[in-house]
Amino acid sequence: MPLINMERVLRISDTLKRFDLGSAKLNVFDTRYYPPASDPPKMVTLYFLVMVAMDHRLSRPGKPYEAVLNGKRIRGADLLYRLGMMVYGERPEFFSPENLARITEDEVVAWLTIGDASPPDPRLRALLLRDLGQKLLSLYNGNPLAMLQIPRGYLRAAEGYGLLDLLKVFKAYQDPVEKKAFLLVKFLFYRGLFEPRDVENLHVPVDNHLTRIALRLGIVELEEALFKKVLNGYELTHDEDALIRICVREGFKAVSRESGVDVFLLDDFLWVFGRSTCMQEEPKCYSCPFRGVCRAYDVGVFVKDLNYFNTWYY
């Protein structure tokens, strides 16, 4: 079973305390990727519901999801949200529940294909969008703001439903580790559309970058057999993937608590760090601020991303 190494948590937290992370905060008003600040809350909420639903596993080994836009190579989630804003600017009705409820695989391919970049699972993505649209119509009369009002600011509720509970009705948001749910909450919070009252229930949205970082730093340790499976790139089961990522989630919650860094700001920092420094291939250890407290650097063994690609969870 995975476990959290609290000694590593404390050492990494002490290192984090010396950083000024203010500049790491995600700018959710950058109109290259997100709707303008002046747009109606309903449209903004629909945009994020759709885009986060699509924010999973766009690249595959040997086939990265990247393309050149305006002379600059863009990849992964950056490209996804750029394409989202392109269609949002041209046809905002694309994001309406009525359109989502009948969207086709061909329409998803047309939307998310540019140059050599194309989604690896368009049939699944179309299914997720139809499910989202149909349930928004049947449960909330097509108005996502109605869903945000029900929890009264709670993520989880002993009585009634918190926002995390309500999101689980949508297939796109059924990850047991709730990566997409927490990413959506972060966007909504940053945009002033939802303010969590039970902050103790906030967590980082655990994706491949955060998992890789946690395993390399030694925040999360795996039993020998599972570690060898990850290190050698063997395909994981659904439960193995979930167990590792839930431990990563709790590990970074401990880092947030010990360092005093807000979980969402911590996520903003780690996501960029995972793409720019602690990359899957050729990590830049020479410039890494955690080099002195990193288990992988100490022992010279660097795990790569979990081999669990056929998922819409993250």
From TrEMBL:
The source's superkingdom equals Archaea
Tell me which Gene3D superfamilies the record gives.
Answer: Helix-hairpin-Helix base-excision DNA repair enzymes (C-terminal)
Instruction: Kindly list the biological process annotations in GO that this record carries.
Output: DNA repair
- One GO MF term, please? catalytic activity
Protein name, please?
Iron-sulfur cluster loop
What organism does the record attribute this protein to?
Answer: Ignisphaera aggregans
